[in-house]
Design goal:
Blueprint: H1 2-17, H2 23-38, H3 40-75, H4 82-114, H5 116-129, H6 141-172, H7 179-201, H8 206-215, H9 217-231, H10 236-255
Helix pairs in contact: 1-2, 2-3, 2-9, 2-10, 3-4, 3-5, 3-10, 4-6, 5-7, 5-10, 6-7, 7-9, 7-10, 9-10
């Protein structure tokens, strides 16, 4: 992630001259890494989500390790002959790819749910620094507790419809011709989850948030694909959710 910060500094002059739907999300990811690693306030808020991410990552990788051979056996038995070996390798790599992406998405969602209050605070801090909102007044203990319960409630309701869609995409991922569609839609949903926090801070209603995400579908797809690519790097998923939220908040500021 230190390399990401250096890359962001090198690319900023180029990106500022003319950002496309592809370059703006890339810059957002780099900005998110810079916020979480170099900004003291945001780094302090990101510590707990990073710890939650560590637990979720270990649990998801254990699940992938034990479920992968069982899944492969459902499609191919012990290979005999050249063609069966080719088919076995295709199924092996496809199952590994789909399980890894699914584990990344599920871990990401769990971190967003369990660390929702901290993610909201990260989005809020980025919006303040970008001049999109004023510094909020210090709330009482009761108001803080109310915000925690509200955040958990909102994220839980969101998971009610997002998790079934992810399972549906997981099943479709085993149809080779549909795999690009699954990856694109999964990336969009991942990006939507990241920008949902700053949109919530800005008091966007549910339907307005969904309309916003659909209106910027292509930009969010590139943003989500970048997050998925980073998530495939070992241990990166631990750091990814706060970076995604910080980058998503910056992206919202630039797209408005």
């Amino acid at each position: 992630f230190g390399l990401l910060i250096e890359l962001q500094q090198d690319l900023s002059p180029i990106l500022s001259q003319g950002r496309s739907n592809m370059l703006l999300p890339l810059d957002a990811i780099l900005k998110g890494a810079r916020f979480c690693l170099l900004n003291r306030r945001i780094r302090r808020l990101a510590i707990l989500p990073w710890l939650i991410g560590l637990v979720c990552y270990i649990a998801s990788m254990i699940g992938v390790y034990y479920s992968h051979p069982l899944l492969v056996e459902q499609f191919v038995s012990d290979p005999h002959g050249f063609l069966l070996w080719i088919w076995y390798l295709v199924v092996w790599f496809l199952a590994a790819l789909v399980l890894s992406i699914f584990a990344i998405l599920l871990s990401f969602l769990m971190v967003m749910l369990l660390g929702g209050v901290f993610q909201t605070s990260i989005a809020e801090q980025v919006l303040i620094e970008q001049g999109r909102m004023a510094l909020p007044e210090q709330g009482s203990v009761s108001s803080t507790a109310h915000e925690i319960l509200r955040s958990i409630s909102v994220e839980s309701l969101k998971l009610i419809w997002m998790i079934p869609i992810f399972f549906f995409l997981f099943v479709l991922g085993f149809v080779p011709i549909l795999l690009p569609f699954v990856v694109i839609l999964g990336a969009w949903m991942l990006a939507y989850q990241a920008v949902d926090f700053p949109l919530d801070v800005l008091k966007f209603g549910v339907m307005r948030r969904l309309g916003y995400a659909l209106r910027h579908f292509l930009t969010l797809c590139f943003f989500g694909l970048g997050l998925v690519a980073l998530g495939l790097i070992p241990l990166a998923i631990i750091f990814l959710p706060p970076i995604a939220v910080a980058g998503g908040a910056w992206l919202v500021c630039k797209m408005e």
